[in-house]
Specification:
Elements (H helix, E strand, L loop, with lengths): L2 E6 L2 E2 L1 H10 L4 E3 L12 E3 L6 H4 L2 H4 L4 H17 L9 E6 L5 H13 L9 H4 L4 H10 L5 E4 L5 H15 L4 E8 L4 H8 L29 E8 L1 H7 L7 E9 L11 H12 L8 E3 L6 H15 L5 E3 L12 H15 L1 E2 L13 E2 L5 E2 L4 E8 L3 E8 L1
Parallel strand pairs: 5-6, 5-7, 10-11, 10-15, 11-13
Antiparallel strand pairs: 1-2, 1-8, 3-4, 7-8, 9-16, 12-14, 15-16
Helix pairs in contact: 4-7, 8-13, 11-12
Length: about 400
């Protein structure tokens, strides 16, 4: 990984995000983008300080949803961070993840359809809502002609996209890939959709709405934002003189949970073990875990059980920086990977905020950052319905 960029509710840009995350500064507040007082979910992680007009030309603003504007700006920053030359030798691909698509754009155009008539609907509605639009718009803006694709696996999709980008490099399909995920579905239509899942907190006080692993946990809160990474073949990166290497994707695995009511075990522990095998690392080599942190009692319990099964009780430090951003669907995994890379660089784990009473068998980093030597970390992501993804990141 030679380039990275992040946009989150508690920080726009990698440096601002990391400063806020180490400080325990939350980006979760009462929803301000529209009047949410009549909705069961009233708080979210919204990106407050992003002026798309400063980063993108007007022609792109008229044809894109907020999630695509975030993705386009982040793509510019990640490519600049990697210092990829315009005439880079080899194919440059794009592989992103999405879960909701351009919800806000779609809502606006449906309002025009029913309120003003079909002739008022934007022609850009044909693709601005679509899951693959970020891949397409990034490819066009940067003239990238390598492999292009999109993965749709909910919260797990962002990690799956990064892992598939690494596999593309190993297969020799391409020499560089821009990968990650972004979401921006905090709008009336998006809020109605996520509120029906039964996994969202209805607590109106943002301080107590999202408490992963706490005995008071009542659900998660939605968020927007995400991250993009430049992945490239190590030999090719050395040949072109890449100025920095943020870290390495060492292993990955994805599993499905059994159907509800089955007596079979959930698939998260199996995903962790398979990711460690893919990375050729023993259990003891993992120095920390960036948790999925669902924020519901049953799913948090399942994650604690999986970690205890693989690592033993309090066998590895665990953190959940998404406690400061909310759950960003496919943007959460890539944002956690950025946090993991920065943790590896600085030798420090960010805290989990809000949570006070975590299970005794979980060594959860609370209140303050924890400094410790880090060489390999595990990033987890799950989606209700059965998706599990585990990614091993090394220094």
């Amino acid at each position: 990984m030679t380039g990275m960029a992040a946009i989150a509710p508690n920080g726009v840009g990698v440096d601002d995000y990391w400063d806020a995350t180490l400080s325990g500064r939350s980006g979760i507040y009462p929803i301000s983008g529209f009047d949410a007082t009549s909705y069961p979910v009233r708080v979210a992680g919204e990106v407050p300080d992003f002026d798309a007009g400063r980063h993108l030309p007007p022609r792109l603003l008229t044809q894109t949803d907020r999630m695509t504007r975030y993705a386009l700006a982040a793509a510019d920053w990640a490519v600049a961070d990697a210092e990829v030359p315009p005439d880079v030798d080899g194919e440059f691909g794009v592989l992103t993840a999405a879960a909701a698509g351009g919800f806000e754009f779609g809502q606006r155009e449906l309002e025009k359809l029913w309120g003003q008539g079909p002739d008022r609907v934007s022609a850009y509605q044909s693709f601005a809502w679509f899951y693959a639009v970020n891949t397409g718009q990034i490819s066009i803006r940067h003239g990238l002609r390598g492999t292009g694709s999109v993965l749709v696996a909910g919260q797990a999709g962002g990690l799956d996209a990064i892992a598939e980008a690494a596999r593309m490099l190993r297969r020799g399909t391409t020499t560089l890939v821009l990968t990650g995920g972004f979401e921006a579905s905090v709008c009336p239509w998006g809020l109605v959709a996520c509120a029906t899942t039964g996994t969202m907190s209805t607590e109106p006080d943002p301080r107590w709405a999202y408490l992963p692993f706490d005995e008071r946990a009542s659900g998660a809160v939605p968020g927007e934002g995400g991250a993009l990474l430049v992945l490239e073949d190590a030999v090719a990166a050395a040949r072109r003189g890449a100025p920095r290497v943020h870290g390495r994707i060492a292993g990955h695995a994805a599993t499905f949970d059994p159907p509800p009511g089955s007596t079979r075990e959930p698939g998260l522990a199996r995903a962790v073990r398979a990711a460690l095998r893919d990375a050729d690392l023993p259990v003891g080599a993992i120095d920390a875990v960036f948790a999925d942190a669902a924020g519901t009692p049953d799913r948090d319990r399942a994650e604690v059980d999986a970690l205890r099964e693989v690592f033993g009780p309090r066998g590895v430090p665990v953190t959940a920086p998404k406690s400061m951003t909310g759950r960003l669907d496919s943007g959460s995994g890539p944002l956690d990977v950025v946090a993991a890379l920065l943790s590896l660089r600085d030798g420090v784990l960010p805290p989990t905020i809000g949570t006070r009473r975590a299970p005794d068998e979980l060594d959860l980093v609370l209140d303050e950052p924890r400094g410790l030597p880090l060489r390999a970390v595990l990033v987890l992501a799950r989606e209700p319905g059965g998706f599990n993804s585990a990614l091993v990141v090394t220094a």
